[in-house]
Amino acid sequence: MKENEKLGQSPAFGQPTFIGPEGTIETAAAYFGEDGCGMSKRYYTALKMAQGMLSNPSFSNINMKPSDITKMAYGLADELLKQE
Q1: Radius of gyration (Cα) for the chain, nearest Å?
Q2: Which residues touch 74 (CB under 8 Å, ≥6 apart)?
Q3: CA dist., res. 54 & res. 59, Å (int)
Q4: Are 65 and 54 within 8 A, CB to CB?
Q5: CA-CA 20 to 30 A from 40: which of 64, 80, 81, 84?
Q6: pLDDT for 24-39, tens place per residue?
Q7: CB 6: neighbour CB atoms within 10 A?
Q8: Sign of torsion over alpha carbons 29, 8, 76, 72
Q9: Spatial distance between the Cα atoms of 53 and 74, rounded to a whole number of angstroms
Q10: Angle at which helices 41-55 and 66-82 pack, to 10 degrees?
């Protein structure tokens, strides 16, 4: 990872490839930029963390605000992505 790159900001999934107007093979990044194509690894991981927490019956009985769940999910995602 580049030193100035933020944790988990690369795309979570590969970018679609297609034949451009000039007949060249291109990716969506050619039109939207590297950051504008799909969701980031960090966002995707945080979504999965929140989904896992909310699907656990013992966890969902705890009275937590949505913002608390979001903070916890992003915290877990950040720790996981540090291991990448």
Answers
A1: 17
A2: 42, 46, 49
A3: 7
A4: no
A5: 64
A6: 887 766 666 665 567 8
A7: 10
A8: negative
A9: 12
A10: 120
- d(CA 31, CA 1) in angstroms, rounded, equals 24
pTM of the model: 0.67
Q: Which two tokens stand for residue 75?
A: 């915290």
Q: Which of 29, 6, 8, 9 is nearest to 17 (CA)?
A: 29
Beta carbons of 53 and 72 less than 8 angstroms apart: yes
> How many residues in total does the chain contain?
84
Q: Which of 25, 28, 48 is nearest to 38 (CA)?
A: 28
Cα gap 3→19, rounded to integer Å: 33
Residues with Cβ within 8 Å of 59's Cβ and at least 6 positions away in sequence, in order, are 53
Render pLDDT for 3-18 as a digit per residue (tens, 0 to 9).
445 677 777 777 777 7
Neighbours of 83 (CB within 10 A): 5
